[in-house]
Write a structure and sequence with these properties.
Layout lengths: L7 H10 L3 E21 L6 H13 L5 H8 L3 H13 L3 E4 L2 E4 L1 H8 L7 E10 L19 E2 L4 E4 L5 E4 L13 H9 L15 E23 L2 E7 L13 H7 L5 H8 L4 E4 L14 E4 L15 E2 L2 H10 L11 E4 L2 E5 L2 H5 L4 H10 L1 E5 L6 E9 L3 H15 L7 H7 L7 H7 L3 H12 L5
C-alpha cells in the first residue's frame, strides 16, 4: 500500500516547463470489484487435443486406467486424472461401472463435430466499483498486485515492541451494489473484437453464478498552478515509464488512469489541503505535531473550491513550518498563505537558527521543499516554496555557488580569500551559513593548528 513508483521530480519538471508549479498530490482509494464467476466458455483450450486422445482411448476400451493412458501418451497419471475431471465437469464423459464413456455431448463434440465444446470454469473479472464497467487488461497483470483487498491485513511492530495489525482497505468512494444482471450486461456489452483488451474470454457464453471481493486502487490527484489557474487531475502513481514506448512521462502517468476520470473529475475539483492539530494527551506536556490532511471526508459540502487547494489558518501554517519543515524563528510577515500558494521568504535569523543549514540552502536554491504526508488521510505530498529578499541570505547563495564551482579545487583559506577577496572578513561566517562544517574544520586546522615539520 502506498509503494508508489511516481517520479514526482520529473512530474514537477513537466509543469515547470509550462511555466507552472506543482502544489501537491492527494491520494484516493478508488473502489474496484473482483467478480469471482463460474462461466461457460467456448474459447479453444490448449489441451483440447490431449482431451480428444483420452476420449479416443475410452471409445476403444472403457476400462483404461489413468496410469495406462499416461504411460502410452508420455504423461503422468496425475495429469491424466486432472484432464478426466475436466471432461467430467464439462459433461463430455461420464463414469460407468468399469471406467468412463463418452456422453451424447462428448460424441457431438469429438466424433460428429456438430457442437462447439463449452468449458465450465472459474474466472475473475475486474470491474470499476462505481460504473461496474470492465477494467482493461492491465488490471489483470501489472496492477493486480497493486489492488488492496477488503481481506488484506498488515502486521507491524509498535514502538513498545508489540505486534499490531492494520487493515489498509479504506475506500474513499462507496462501492456501487453489485447487481448481477447489470454486471453481465456490462461484460457482454464489450464488442467481441475488443474483448481481449479487457481480458474477457473471446468465447464467453454465459456467467452462471458469481461472488465478489471488494478492492480499491490508489489514485493520485496532482494539483498544479499554471497561467494563474489551478488544475486538479488524476495521475497514476504506479506507472512504469519506458523511453521505448515513445511517450513522455506525463503521457505515461495518464494513459492507464483515464478510465477513472468520469467518476472522479467533478469531485476532485473541490479538494483542499487542511491542517489538523491533535488534542494534547493527558500523559504528556509535549505539544503534538500538526497533521496535513484533506477535506475529502466532507467533500460534498465544498462547492466552490476549484481555484483553491490550501485552507490553512496563519497560526496552523506557522506550526507546520516550524514542526514539519523544521524552520525556526519564522515571522508571520515572511510567510505567504494563499488559497493557491504557500511560500516562505527566508531570512538570516531563520537560516542561522536552523540545525541543518546546508539542507535549507539547497531548498532555497531549488526554491522548494516537500512533505510526504499520510495517504490514509488522502495526502501524498505537499510543496512549500522558498524565496528570499534578505541581503545576507542572497550573499550566502552566491557564496554557496562559488563553493560548488570550486569544489574540485584544493580549497584553502588563503586561496579562497585571495581569489574572492570580498569574503575575506566573513569567510568563516559564510561557511557556517551554508552548512559546510567539514570544509570549515579543514580550514580551521590550516589556519590555527601548528604545523609539524
Amino acid at each position: 500500500m502506498g509503494l508508489f513508483s511516481l517520479d514526482f521530480e520529473r512530474l514537477y519538471q513537466h509543469f515547470q516547463a509550462q511555466g507552472g508549479q506543482l502544489k501537491g498530490i492527494f491520494c484516493i482509494q478508488y473502489p474496484i470489484y473482483c467478480i469471482h464467476a463460474n462461466i461457460s466458455d467456448v474459447t479453444p483450450d490448449a489441451l483440447e487435443n490431449v482431451d480428444r486422445v483420452i476420449c479416443d482411448f475410452y471409445k476403444k476400451n472403457h476400462s483404461f486406467t489413468p496410469f495406462q493412458i499416461g504411460s502410452l501418451i508420455g504423461t503422468s497419471k496425475t495429469f491424466v486424472e486432472i484432464r478426466i475431471q475436466v471432461l467430467l465437469r464439462d459433461g463430455l464423459i461420464k463414469k460407468i461401472e468399469d471406467g468412463y464413456q463418452l456422453t451424447d455431448a462428448g460424441r457431438a463434440v469429438f466424433d460428429d463435430k456438430i457442437r462447439q465444446r463449452q468449458y465450465s470454469r472459474t474466472f475473475d473479472f475486474y470491474l470499476d466499483g462505481v460504473s461496474l464497467a470492465p477494467l482493461p487488461k492491465v488490471f489483470y497483470t501489472f496492477y493486480r498486485s497493486k489492488l488492496i483487498s477488503e481481506n488484506d491485513v498488515r502486521y507491524f511492530t509498535g514502538s513498545d515492541g508489540e505486534t499490531r495489525t492494520s487493515r489498509p482497505f479504506g475506500p474513499d468512494i462507496v462501492h456501487t451494489p453489485p447487481d448481477k444482471d447489470l454486471i453481465t450486461e456490462k461484460i457482454f456489452g464489450i464488442p467481441l473484437d475488443e474483448r481481449d483488451e479487457y481480458n474477457i474470454p473471446t468465447g464467453l457464453v454465459s456467467i452462471e453464478d458469481s461472488s465478489f471481493t471488494k478492492q480499491t486502487f490508489q489514485v493520485l490527484v496532482a494539483v498544479s498552478f499554471i497561467n494563474g489557474e489551478l488544475t486538479k487531475e488524476i495521475i497514476d502513481g504506479f506507472a512504469y515509464f519506458s523511453l521505448a514506448e515513445g511517450l513522455t512521462y506525463y503521457e505515461t502517468i495518464k494513459k492507464n488512469i483515464r478510465i477513472f476520470e468520469n467518476g472522479l473529475n467533478d469531485k476532485i475539483q473541490n479538494l483542499e489541503f487542511k491542517i489538523t492539530i491533535p488534542a494534547m494527551r493527558e500523559d504528556t506536556d509535549k505539544q503534538p505535531k500538526p497533521i496535513i490532511t484533506s477535506n475529502w471526508g466532507e467533500i460534498d459540502r465544498y462547492k466552490n473550491s476549484k481555484n483553491k487547494c490550501f485552507s490553512f489558518s496563519s497560526e496552523d501554517l506557522m506550526r507546520v513550518i516550524t514542526d514539519i519543515f523544521k524552520i525556526k524563528d519564522v515571522s508571520p510577515e515572511s510567510v505567504v498563505n494563499e488559497e493557491s500558494n504557500i511560500e516562505i521568504s527566508l531570512t538570516k535569523e531563520m537560516l542561522m537558527s536552523s540545525s541543518d543549514r546546508g539542507r535549507l540552502i539547497e531548498n532555497l536554491i531549488r526554491q522548494r521543499d516537500y512533505y510526504i504526508g499520510n495517504i490514509d488521510r488522502n495526502v501524498f505530498l505537499v510543496y512549500l516554496y522558498f524565496k528570499t529578499t534578505d541581503d545576507f541570505v542572497q550573499q550566502v547563495l552566491k557564496f554557496k555557488k562559488l563553493i560548488k564551482e570550486n569544489k574540485k579545487s584544493l580549497l584553502t583559506h588563503t586561496w579562497f580569500t585571495e581569489t574572492y577577496p570580498a569574503y575575506k572578513d566573513n569567510f568563516r561566517e559564510m561557511l557556517t551559513a551554508v552548512g559546510e562544517i567539514d570544509l570549515l574544520e579543514k580550514i580551521d586546522i590550516e589556519c590555527f593548528m601548528a604545523k609539524t615539520t
